[in-house]
Amino acid sequence: MIPSVLPTYNRAPLTFVKGEGSWLIEADGRRFLDMGAGIAVNALGHAHPALVEALTEQAGKLWHTSNLYDIPQQQALADKLVAATFADTVFFTNSGTESCELAVKMARKYFHDKGQPDRTGIIAFEGAFHGRSHAAIAAAGSEKMVKGFGPLLPGFTQVAWGDHDGLHAAIDDTTAAILIEPVQGEGGIRPLPVQCLKGLRDLCDEKGILLVLDEVQCGMGRTGKLFAHEWAGVAPDIMMVAKGIGGGFPLGAVLATEEAASGMTAGTHGSTYGGNPLACAVGAAVMDIIADPGFLESVNAKAGRLRQGLEGLVSAHPGIFEEVRGVGLMLGLKCKVANTDVVSAAYDAELITVPAADNVVRLLPPLTLTDKDIAEALKRLDVAAEQIEGQKRT
Fold this sequence. Notes:
Layout: E1 16-20, E2 23-26, E3 31-34, H1 37-40, H2 49-59, H3 72-84, E4 89-93, H4 96-113, E5 121-125, H5 134-140, H6 143-146, E6 156-159, H7 164-170, E7 175-180, E8 183-184, E9 190-191, H8 194-207, E10 210-214, E11 238-241, E12 252-256, H9 277-290, H10 293-316, E13 321-327, E14 330-335, H11 339-348, E15 351-352, E16 354-356, E17 360-363, H12 371-393
Parallel strand pairs: 3-15, 5-6, 5-7, 7-10, 10-11
Antiparallel strand pairs: 1-2, 2-3, 4-12, 8-9, 11-12, 13-14, 14-17, 16-17
C-alpha cells in the first residue's frame, strides 16, 4: 500500500524537531551537528534571531496579496540584489527549479525578440543539476534524471565537464545560451576554474550568446563571495538563485541585465507565490547579513580552517578519503569507500553530511558555524572514518 507521502525520497531514519544555530535536535533528544544546512539552504543556521524576527513581524501584518499589486517587501529585496550584483532587474520565484524555467524562457525570448526565433539551443554540462522540471532535467540530460520522463524538452545539448573543444563544437547558429554552475554541487563539488569562467564569458561575447549561471547552491556567500562568479571578475547575463537566499524560507530569484531581460514584458511570465511579502521580508534580512563584507571575510576565514582540518583528515585516513574539493564553505570529500557508508557512519557520530555524485560527501554547513563547531565536525568525521576502518578490518 502506498504511503500517504509519495515515496520519492530514500529518507534516513531521523526526525528533527528543533534547530539551534549549527545544531539539529532529534525527537529522541540527540543533538546532531548540521554540516549539510538543508543542502546549502540554512545559510544562517537554524532559528537565526534576525530571520525569526523578520518572519514573525511580517507574519503579523500580511502574508500574501499576489503579484497583481505592488509588494513593498519585494521591491526592497530587488533593490538590495540589484545594488549588490551585476543585475538590473530581478524576478522572484519559490525555488531553484522555477528559476531554471524562467532562465531558459528568458534566453529564448531574448533571441525571438531580436528576430532570431531559431536561436533556442541551450548548452549545458555533464554532471549538472538544475532542478527537476522538464527544462531542468533536459538540461542535465543524465539517465538518472530523465529515464521514464520522455519525451524530453528539445533544444538542450550536454558537453563533458572541462571539454573545451566539445564546447566550441557544440555552438552553432541555433545556440542561445550556455548554462553552467560555477561550482557543481550534486555533480560532486567540482569548481569551474577561474580562467575557464573568464573564457566562457569571452566565448559568449564572441559568439553573441548569453551566459546563464546557476548559483542556486554556490551563491549567497557559500564560496566566500556573495556569488561564486565574482571570484573570476566576470558577470553573467542571467543568473539563477535560490536555497540560501531565503535562509530556509522557500525563495528563489532570477537576476538579469536589462538587455538579457528585454523580452520579458507584461504577461510573459508569472508566479502566484513568487516574491510574496513573507518570503521577501526574510530574504531582505538574509541579504543584510550575508552581503556585508565583514561577514564574507568571516566565511573565508572559517573555510580556511575547515579545509585545513579536512586535509589532515584525508592524511589520517588514506584508505577512506582521497581528496578535499571545493571552495569556501562548499567542500567535498572524495571517498575511496562508498560515500553512503561515510554519510551513514557520520549519522552514527551524530553528524549531518550530504552525498553527491562521483563518490563525494558534501560539507555545506551554515555560514555562521563557529570555530568550536568546526573542531567538533572534524572530530566526528574522524570517529566516522575510524568506524569504517574497524568494519573493514573485521
